[in-house]
């Protein structure tokens, strides 16, 4: 990753919860924190009907979508069988208590929009 | 660790599936199966024999499934000895053997049993080359064999020893009806007849059987021609291997509630075992065993198998027959019977201590799964007794307004209205994916996974497509896949052990997952805060988004805001503030709800706190499992018929009860006279003003399935209304299971139970009402006291990408 962009401190994310990173024009990102302080980021669009995953219940390394309860694996962004579909996952790095996303602040759109079964 | 399984039948393979779900890599597994086939659905051999399905249709796990999970599969190998000293775990799933009557001639060619694919092939071949068949035994297997052979063109006679067919599942009337309709299809019967001898043909045809000599109850002998004799006179647990290994056996390999034999390293499961004195011969109990056994093999060590109630269905297309439980009745039992021999319908329900304990249905079995559910759950049926016989539809319980039944539905008809799933899709999923349970169907097709009103239809499709009756889900349904404990057990543990946090509860109850799932966490959270108010700490991350954000999420990710409008009565200043908020925040839709208040739809999450502040009205909790609305009518203040001031009563109730979390949402209504303009008859608590005071009704529901509320009590004063309604709701809060509405709670415990506490026992009622007031005391309004309500306010503030 050629550029990491800082978003917040780790302790600004709720444990077993998520926050939204707004990226006008490029699609929001949901940043999740697990009980063991692992951090994952996915585009905030459920592969089912686009529900905001950031609003779901986080458990283990999964999130349950708030709209129709699909369960999404935080690491891969893929729905747990028998549901099918994936949302794009985004690289995250936690360094000295600070969370960075692997997207560029100056030109975010192409980095995110190039792939994604969700679009 | 090494795990060796002997017997690759339905019970064994199912245990492996369950085990792999729990602990995919724990064991190095080897499977020995005497048959040359991988795992198939033995039940469906009958449709194969009848020419309705093929062997290909009934395979459950092919050899590639075993390979995929790293299981070594040794087919066509009969294990003859177990070496008990080796350090490994064994699992015996050897099934049972058909009983072979020791009559002269039983070893002749052409004399077979009916158990596996091989037998089925033999029968199909015989039918193509021979003419006369005799089936010995008029039980489930014998009749299915006879029917199949008949359909393949043979002349078939069934010889049966007992007084009527399927005497272990049917009473005499149903047995005789069954015989009549099978005779109409061309089968012949010899009832109360004993088989004396099988006679071989003179060596010309290689000594093959050619006749059966029988004797009837009057001692008269008869000789029946027979080129094929099928012995279907019962099964016996296959314990040979276990016995040779020195394991304790007595009418089956004796196992305990964890499916362990007398040697704890050896588990046994399926038809080969004797559990608490019972050897089962149907699939549903074996599947329950499989679940428990897998749990112990996976070293989770929780869950016990405590026995099953079984139900039987005969798989002869065109004959509808269902039997379950203690259908013969007996002392202290009452029977309800409906008999229409000309219409070919017979139904008998057996009731004991207000509970359904058994039943036989013949000719019309659509309600089989419903009766079976009532039976398993031990539900008190006194309240529906007079309508019980007429089935679930009569209670308004099948689908959206008594929809047509599963079997008569066209393939493209919609079964699940919520998820748009049609019959074809469900049937296909059951067949292709080898589904057995309601849960499986829900997962794979989504049918019946939302409002649940099509559950009965889906169960009927399962029964018809997968063969047996798999509605026999465990008697006790666990909260979710993270635990084997039921809602009741979890509630009890939280109370008895004084558990105060979700991690503590999960630890004590040995949850299987580190932090639960989206099903169990909200339930646990509710149980904790309702059992230990002011002590247990609420966990917002274990609440559904609506209760975490205090607004309803919409399909586009925005939220709706419904401020509280006490008793549905508002005024100009509230309306003006609402109007100003709509303008200021550019709110797209303003709608009057079905609950007598106003909904602002399309609010951005980050605007929520400001919208609440500007409205200056309390939270309407339209998003919560909590008190929603108290609907009222204008009442005696304005209405020419009004007998009581229903608007004021409604406002008083709403002010006393708002902020009250409950197992599910709670809705009230107060009408000023029996014309009932506030629709009190379909509310969780409905109050109706009468000349002498108030009538209180409970457990109504106007949602998925309309249920009329039941009369609880008549009282004189408004103070009494508050106390009785509050006490009833507190009882529900303490005893209800999460997501169980009052209608389902009261159906489960019985209205009598509620009345005994809330109406008959004044001290108990007051105590309940006091506990409710204690719980609500100081409960904050989340919209205006977010910190006291424990809201994580960071959620309303989006993050941004920060330049480095
Ligand atoms: C807004 C409203 C429709 C309207 O525009 O009028 C509504 C909207 C929803 N209802 Fe309702 N119900 C509304 C009145 C009703 C009523 C009528 C009433 O309350 O008098 C009923 C039947 C009465 C009853 O509940 O017994 C009703 C029975 C349901 C049910 C079925 C509940 C059941 O147990 O059978 C659900 C599903 C559920 O709760 O699981 C439901 C669920 C919903 C949900 C929450 C669906 C969801 O999960 O997202 C909708 C939320 C929309 C939102 O964000 O605001 N809604 N819903 C009504 C809000 C009333 C209010 O002021 O709070
Ligand atoms: C025709 C038919 C129709 C049925 N219809 C219904 C129905 O409608 N509903 C219902 O619920 N049930 C029905 N049943 C019963 C149901 O099929 C059984 O209850 C179920 O298959 C038992 O499972 P199991 O694993 O215990 O035994 P099985 O499925 O019999 O499996 C045991 C396996 O172990 C193998 N084995 C035994 N000993 C050894 C050894 N020493 N070494 C290696 N392998 C060994 C056997 O060859 C066999 O493959 C029906 C059965 C039949 C035959
Ligand atoms: S508001 Fe109620 S009835 Fe209308 S679509 Fe939503 S849940 Fe269904
Ligand atoms: S949008 Fe996520 S489950 Fe439907």
The total count of strands of chain B amounts to 35
Oligomer: heterodimer
Taking the alpha carbons of the first and last residues of chain A, their distance comes to 23 Å
For the record, give the distance between the C-alpha atoms at the N and C termini of chain B, rounded to a whole number: 52 Å
| Principal-axis shape of chain A | globular
Q: How many alpha or pi helices of chain B?
A: 24
Measured on Cα atoms, how large is the radius of gyration of chain A? 13 Å
Order of helices and strands of chain A: EEEEEEEEEEH
The percent of residues in helical segments of chain A reads under 10%
Number of strands of chain A: 10
Give the structure's gist in a few sentences.
The complex is a heterodimer of chains A (119) and B (804). With 119 residues, chain A is mainly beta.
Commentary on this structure:
Chain A is mainly β and 119 residues long. Chain A contains one helix and ten strands; from the N terminus they run E-E-E-E-E-E-E-E-E-E-H. Chain A has one helix spanning 108-113; strands spanning 5-9, 17-21, 29-33, 39-43, 57-59, 62-64, 71-73, 89-90, 92-95, 98-101. In chain A, the strands form three sheets. Chain A has a four-stranded antiparallel β-sheet with strand order 2-3-4-8, with no helix packed on it. Chain A has a three-stranded antiparallel β-sheet with strand order 1-10-9, with no helix packed on it. With 804 residues, chain B is of the alpha/beta class. Helix content of chain B is 30%, strand content 20%. Chain B is elongated. Residues 396-404 of chain B have low confidence and may be disordered. Chains A and B meet through strand 1, strand 2 and strand 5 of A and helix 17 of B. Bound molecules: siroheme, flavin-adenine dinucleotide, iron/sulfur cluster and FE2/S2 (inorganic) cluster (FES). Siroheme binds at residues 552, 554, 560, 562, 591, 593-595, 597, 599, 622, 628-629, 665, 667, 701-704, 741 of chain B.
């Amino acid at each position: 990753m050629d550029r990491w962009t800082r978003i917040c401190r780790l302790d600004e994310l709720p444990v077993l919860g998520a926050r939204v990173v707004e990226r006008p024009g490029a699609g929001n990102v949901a940043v999740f924190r697990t009980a063991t302080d692992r951090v994952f980021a996915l585009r905030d669009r459920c592969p089912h009907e686009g529900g905001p995953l950031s609003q779901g219940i986080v458990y283990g390394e999964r999130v349950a979508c708030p709209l129709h309860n699909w369960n999404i694996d935080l690491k891969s962004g893929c729905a747990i069988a028998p549901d099918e579909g994936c949302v794009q996952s985004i690289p995250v790095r936690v360094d000295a208590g600070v969370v960075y996303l692997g997207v560029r602040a100056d030109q975010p759109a192409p980095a995110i929009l190039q792939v994604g079964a969700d679009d | 660790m090494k795990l060796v399984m002997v017997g690759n039948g339905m019970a064994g393979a199912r245990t492996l599936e369950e085990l792999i779900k729990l602990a995919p890599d724990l064991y190095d597994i080897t499977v020995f199966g005497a048959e040359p086939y991988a795992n198939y659905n033995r039940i469906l051999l009958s449709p194969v024999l009848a020419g309705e399905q093929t062997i290909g249709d009934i395979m459950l796990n092919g050899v590639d499934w075993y390979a995929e999970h790293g299981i070594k599969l040794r087919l066509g190998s009969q294990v003859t000895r177990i070496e008990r000293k080796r350090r490994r775990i064994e699992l015996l799933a050897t099934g049972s053997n058909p009983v072979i009557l020791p009559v002269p001639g039983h070893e002749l060619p052409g004399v077979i049993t009916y158990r596996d694919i091989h037998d089925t092939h033999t029968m199909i071949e015989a039918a193509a080359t021979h003419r006369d068949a005799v089936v010995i035994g008029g039980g489930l297997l014998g009749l299915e064999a006879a029917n199949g052979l008949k359909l393949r063109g043979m002349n078939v006679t069934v010889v049966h020893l007992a007084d009527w067919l399927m005497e272990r599942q049917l009473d005499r009337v149903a047995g005789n009806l069954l015989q009549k309709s099978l005779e109409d299809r061309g089968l012949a019967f010899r009832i109360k007849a004993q088989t004396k001898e099988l006679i071989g043909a003179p060596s010309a045809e290689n000594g093959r059987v050619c006749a059966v000599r029988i004797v009837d109850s009057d001692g008269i002998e008869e000789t029946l021609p027979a080129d094929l004799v099928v012995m279907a006179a019962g099964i016996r647990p296959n314990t040979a291997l276990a016995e040779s290994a020195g394991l304790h056996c007595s009418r089956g390999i004796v196992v305990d509630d964890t499916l362990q034999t007398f040697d704890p390293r050896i588990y046994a499961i399926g038809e080969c075992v004797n559990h608490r004195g019972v050897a089962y011969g149907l699939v549903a109990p074996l599947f329950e065993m499989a679940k428990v056994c897998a749990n112990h093999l996976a070293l989770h060590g929780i869950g016990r198998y405590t026995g099953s109630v079984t139900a039987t269905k005969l798989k002869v297309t065109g004959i509808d027959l269902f039997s379950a439980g203690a259908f013969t009745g007996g002392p202290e039992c009452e029977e309800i019977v409906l008999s229409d021999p000309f219409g070919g319908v017979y139904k008998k329900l057996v009731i004991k201590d207000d509970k359904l304990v058994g039943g036989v249905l013949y000719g019309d079995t659509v309600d089989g799964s419903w009766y079976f559910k009532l039976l398993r759950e031990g539900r008190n049926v006194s309240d529906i007794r007079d309508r019980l016989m007429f089935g679930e539809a009569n209670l308004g319980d099948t689908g959206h307004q008594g929809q047509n039944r599963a079997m008569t539905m066209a393939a493209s008809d919609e079964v699940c209205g919520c998820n748009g799933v049609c019959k074809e899709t469900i049937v296909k999923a059951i067949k292709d994916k080898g589904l057995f349970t309601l849960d499986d169907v829900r997962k794979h097709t989504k049918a019946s996974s939302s409002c649940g009103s099509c559950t009965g239809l889906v169960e009927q499709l399962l029964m018809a497509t997968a063969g047996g009756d798999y509605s026999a889900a465990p008697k006790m349904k666990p909260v979710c896949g993270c635990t084997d404990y039921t809602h009741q057990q979890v509630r009890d543990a939280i109370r008895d052990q004084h558990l105060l946090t979700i991690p503590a509860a999960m630890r004590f109850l040995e949850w299987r997952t580190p932090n639960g799932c989206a099903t169990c966490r909200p339930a646990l959270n509710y149980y904790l805060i309702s059992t230990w108010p002011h002590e247990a700490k609420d966990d917002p991350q274990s609440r559904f988004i609506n209760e975490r954000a205090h607004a309803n999420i919409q399909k586009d990710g925005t939220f709706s805001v419904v401020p509280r409008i006490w008793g549905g009565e508002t005024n100009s200043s509230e309306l003006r503030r609402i109007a100003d908020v709509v303008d200021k925040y550019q709110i797209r839709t303003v709608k009057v709800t079905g609950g007598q208040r106003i909904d602002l739809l399309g609010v951005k999450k980050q605007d929520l706190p400001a919208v609440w502040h500007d409205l200056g009205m309390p939270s309407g909790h339209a998003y919560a499992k909590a008190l929603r609305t108290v609907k009222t009518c204008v009442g005696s203040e304005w209405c020419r018929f009004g007998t009581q001031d229903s608007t004021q009563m409604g406002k008083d109730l709403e002010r006393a009860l708002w902020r009250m979390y409950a197992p599910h949402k709670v809705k009230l209504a107060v009408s000023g006279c029996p014309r009932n303009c506030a629709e009190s008859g379909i509310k969780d608590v409905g109050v109706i003003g009468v000349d002498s005071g108030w009538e209180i009704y409970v457990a109504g529901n106007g949602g998925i399935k309309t249920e009329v509320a039941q009369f609880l009590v008549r009282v004189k004063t408004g103070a009494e209304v508050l106390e009785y309604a509050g006490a009833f709701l507190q009882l529900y809060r303490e005893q209800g299971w999460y997501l169980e509405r009052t209608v389902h709670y009261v159906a489960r415990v019985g209205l009598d139970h509620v009345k005994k506490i809330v109406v008959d026992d004044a001290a108990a009622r007051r105590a309940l009402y006091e506990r409710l007031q204690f719980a609500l005391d100081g409960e904050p309004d989340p919209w205006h006291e977010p910190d006291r309500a424990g809201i994580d306010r960071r959620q309303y503030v989006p993050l941004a990408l920060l330049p480095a």
